[in-house]
Amino acid sequence: MNLEKLRNIGISAHIDSGKTTLSERILYYCGRIHKIEDVRGGGDGATMDHMELEKERGITITSAATSVEWKGHPINLIDTPGHVDFTVEVERSLRVLDGAVLVLCSVGGVQSQSITVDRQMKRYQCPRVAFINKMDRTGANPFRVAEQLREKLGADAFLMQYPIGHEESFSGVVDLIEMKAYTHGGTEGEEVIVGDIPADIKDECDKYRGLMLEALSMYSDELMEKLLSEEEISSDLIYKVTRDAVLGGATPVYMGSAYKNKAVQPLLDAVLKYLPSPLDREIKGSDPKDETVKIELRPDPERPFVGMAFKIVDDAFGQLTFMRIYQGKIEKGGTYINQRTSKKERFSRIVRMHSDKREEIDTATAGDIVAVMGIDCASGDTYGIERDQCTLESMFIPDPVIKIS
Ligand code: GDP
């Protein structure tokens, strides 16, 4: 596994902003679903229940973790429940991510759950990009949504794209780094057509590119100097600074319409370019005998194994324990020690979940997220190779928030 290429990401959203539709499109573009059928009703309105949809198509959209691949990069999509506030489950799912896509509706903008999710992301210092979905809807206004991200969430949010067409006629985006138009061919939008910026929006694109560069220059002296001296700025420099900005807490904003298959691919490109790999994340566990003693974990397969069970799911094949491996590696049939119970347990099978199949694998290494079969543990349990080695759980018990009104 080339860790530098791996992305462990979650998609978080206020309900109804299109998280499921976007997840489904991502599976489609990553080649895991072979046809987008128009079974969901016409955009807003009639929605087929997710379970029905899954049954109909024989796929899993909402597995705890689904592995896909985009442009040679493995991506683990981790389900982050958006409808619950401060539950341990949300905290755990955020804990295992390296980055996230915050989905917003182009009309609804920043809504109550976006605020909750934002708070949780901040707590876990989860780097993220925003995606303004439903750009085809009447009343779509990405500029207002970006403003709300700044005002309501205090986010350093700036547009990385400019919309082409408005509401019904929304047809794609201008990439403000490359200054190229990305539109789509074919009914399923699989083809990205790269062209010149339409003349009527050229001035606006120049203006928003300027605003983007200004925002980014706060993260780079080099970029700031080049801007001030009006020197030419290379795309490579902007990519690098955007990456640093995301790690520094900025929120670059993308936009599209998942339902109409517009501009989902450029979002996937942004995930690869800007969201971190497991190598970029610093993870600390605690010494189970004295939790004030912190243990730094590194995604190195040669170091002693430490992994955390973050979700337990029963399905027709048995119990699946979804686990993030923070350090070392695991092998099929190997025995590992539950740090909470001190019991030895055999990992009888290791599986990678794809939306359309499960793949049995012999080993899995640090940085990865897989499902293990044959163990009986509680969600949140840490595993290792010896007793009292390391524990992660206590880290995500949130500070108590007491509100007195
Ligand atoms: P979730 O609750 O966030 O998972 O949202 P869904 O993916 O279930 O979408 C909610 C509704 O919005 C459904 O009726 C979708 O068909 C619709 N929807 C999703 N994406 C878009 C979009 O890009 N444009 C429009 N107009 N509707 C969309």
What is shown here, in short?
The protein has helices at residues 19-29, 50-57, 88-95, 112-123, 142-153, 202-217, 221-228, 235-247, 264-274; strands at 7-13, 65-70, 73-79, 99-105, 128-133, 157-159, 161-164, 172-175, 180-185, 191-195, 251-255, 283-287, 290-297, 306-315, 318-327, 329-331, 335-338, 344-346, 349-353, 358-361, 363-365, 369-373, 382-384.
Please report the number of helical segments: 9
Bound molecules: guanosine-5'-diphosphate
Structural class category: alpha+beta
Helical residue percent band = 10-25%
Rg, Å, rounded:
22 Å
Low-confidence stretches are 38-48, 395-405
Number of strand segments = 23
Keywords: Cytoplasm, Elongation factor, GTP-binding, Nucleotide-binding, Protein biosynthesis
Subcellular location: Cytoplasm
Family: Belongs to the TRAFAC class translation factor GTPase superfamily. Classic translation factor GTPase family. EF-G/EF-2 subfamily.
Main location: cytoplasm
List keywords for this structure.
single chain, 405 residues, alpha+beta, 8-stranded antiparallel beta sheet, 7-stranded mixed beta sheet, 9 helices, 23 strands, globular, binds guanosine-5'-diphosphate
